[in-house]
Amino acid sequence: MDATELRRYAEDMLGVPARLHDYQWEGVSFLYRNQAALLADEMGLGKTVQTAVALALTLSTRADMSRALIVAPAALKMNWMSELRKWAPSLTVRSLVGGVSEREAFYLLPIPVLVSSYEQIRQDGFDRIPANTFDIVILDEAQRIKNPNSATTLSCRLLPRKCSWALSATPLENDARDVASILSFLQPMQPFDMSARQLSARLSSIMLRRRKSEVRGELPPVIVQDLRLELAGPQRARYDELWTKRYETVSAGMGEAAIVLLATITQLKIICNFDSASGASTKLAALREICAGAGPDARILVFSQFVETLKWIADRLDLSCDLLTGSMSSRARQDAMERFKTAASPRVLFTSLRAGGVGLNLGEATHVVMYDRWWNPAVEMQAIYRAHRFTRETPLHVVRFTLTDTIEERIASILDAKERLFEDVVESTETTAQDFSVEELMHILEISIGDLDSLKKETEDDCNHGEDLGIS
Questions:
Q1: Does the predicted model carry a pTM greater than 0.90?
Q2: pLDDT value at 128 more than 90
Q3: How far are the Cα atoms of 212, 234, 262, 269, 348 from residue 272, in angstroms, in the given order?
């Protein structure tokens, strides 16, 4: 069946709501036709919706396909259950729960669609899932298996299946090997080690990627404002104090260079957000101005990589607000999102980039504020696109804070270079702090090897001078 025939059958026979766009039906057809497929649409274009409909069509029309497993981040299992009920009402779906023996029973029962977490599959994939259990295995946020040697990746590759689908808006985060690991799940018999050009060519045969600018010209725009701010008063004094001491701090721990460099940068990044001693925060003052000018109907998402920062702001912002973090239970997270969507406005939802930046639908937001920069521009865009969904009817206003004359400027320059790698491999077809090299971390702190060598020599000379004077 072509896309038109699939659409007619899904709406007439399977009860799929007639609200999908043409490009989404093309995505449904792409998945339906391919045994191995990577759906890599830009965030906000409805990958979950397309997959739900394609799955319903496949299980209802293919005699050799009767059971499917969806593997998703634990925080997104409830979202998958909700989206499947809405977009694939013909399917019987269950969430994988319980201990080892209970999960083994789930695998044996003839449940058409089972939704599991990566953590559950990491525990069960090696020896607890019988052969021929599933016909289709779907990996959501497939960049989770970018490390080819992790237990999670190996467990996913061992899953019994006839058909492999992967979903990811950011299949390549730092290195060409990221996407190679996903390809090893989709096409296990293909070679792993390939050049960027070879990867791009191989991706083109099994990947469908659309940008919003290509398929949804009528979608209201994202209006981005980069707001440059200046530190002042006690916050600037505290930052300068830590900055001046960075040589000594790093030199003292050069045995574990990357760890010490990263810890020093983290301290400086937190001071850029707020000074706990004085209560000063240039960014908080700017956020208050944004909230005051956003209007009575505003629903504002505020992202930070630091939960400590979010809690500190929430205690000082005079607006109704909720907190969304990775440590919360699924029910608590769902309740916080529901209040943000439906409770009286104006309202603010403070969320960590890791907790709120992946897989959630927060299209009711009118504004997004990036309080600080994450290590990965792809993760930042994921966070923004939580609010810029395909059902949106009004522009989305995004404000990104950057403090001048601080490490935030130098981090931004490195992230720009990281982003170009994604363009070279994926667009022709996620960065973490740990993926920054020691040289890059030293660049952020404006430290060179020569600086450290000089400092080490000065310290040794001081010690020797002390010994000459009889000081111990």
A1: no
A2: no
A3: 33, 12, 15, 5, 21
